[in-house]
């Protein structure tokens, strides 16, 4: 069975602190995709990144970076020098490949609060 | 470039009633997926439409049905509403060959 676990329910940091959001996944497939989405208070899910299971290179995009480790089935997300605008719920998701595009299986999300 | 749009924004219905939610995909996208997000939870996959047919379905009862039109827009219908159907309903669109899904702002459904 496929499953995504985000063990951190809520995290609170002060602006400019670095913060890492954890994501652990379970799947029997060897080919799959992992995603991170941001959901601000407005409710709309914003796509942040897609990573396929064959690419274990870490990725950096501005203040955001992602660490994919297949050996531990983890896909962690780090925000460097956090800002108040980063306050949102962050979801990690898994999509298996095969047949169609596959549906997204989401974790329960981590609520990040960045205080000024 | 317009993103995914959904209507209405909010809706209040009574138990037993029926509801229709609408979604227009992002330009260039041909696949539409629907998700239900209960308060404090991650979105749960309802179903996905491609070429006007239901391609995949999650673990939702037959009371949940959908449709996709030739212009790729989609509707989600829920019959015999239950209190537990109260949630944010999210529509996502994507291109056939791509896996990232882009979400709309959602429709907040309240069943009383």
Description:
Chain A is an all-beta fold and 116 residues long. Helix content of chain A is 0%, strand content 53%. Chain A has no helices and twelve strands. In chain A, a hairpin with a 6-residue loop joins strand 5 and strand 6. With 112 residues, chain B is mainly β. Chain B has strands spanning 5-7, 10-13, 19-24, 31-37, 44-50, 53-57, 64-68, 74-78, 87-94, 102-103, 107-111. Classes of the chains: A mainly beta (116), B mainly beta (112). At the A-B interface, strand 5, strand 6, strand 10 and strand 11 of A face strand 4, strand 5, strand 9 and strand 10 of B.
Features:
heterodimer; A: 116 residues; mainly beta; 6-stranded mixed beta sheet; 0% helix; 53% strand; globular; B: mainly beta; 7-stranded mixed beta sheet; 4-stranded antiparallel beta sheet; 51% strand
Please give the alpha-carbon distance between the first and last residues of chain B: 37 Å
Largest beta sheet of chain A, briefly?
6 strands, mixed
pLDDT averaged over residues of chain A: 91
Strand content of chain B: over 45%
Interface with most residues: A-B, 25 and 29 residues
| Oligomerization state | heterodimer
Task: Give the helices and strands, then pairings.
The complex is a heterodimer of chains A (116) and B (112).
Chain A: E1 3-5, E2 10-14, E3 19-21, E4 24-26, E5 32-39, E6 46-52, E7 59-61, E8 64-69, E9 74-79, E10 88-96, E11 105-106, E12 110-115
Parallel strand pairs in A: 2-12
Antiparallel strand pairs in A: 1-4, 3-9, 5-6, 5-10, 7-8, 8-9, 10-11, 10-12
Chain B: E1 5-7, E2 10-13, E3 19-24, E4 31-37, E5 44-50, E6 53-57, E7 64-68, E8 74-78, E9 87-94, E10 102-103, E11 107-111
Parallel strand pairs in B: 2-11
Antiparallel strand pairs in B: 1-3, 3-8, 4-5, 4-9, 5-6, 7-8, 9-10, 9-11
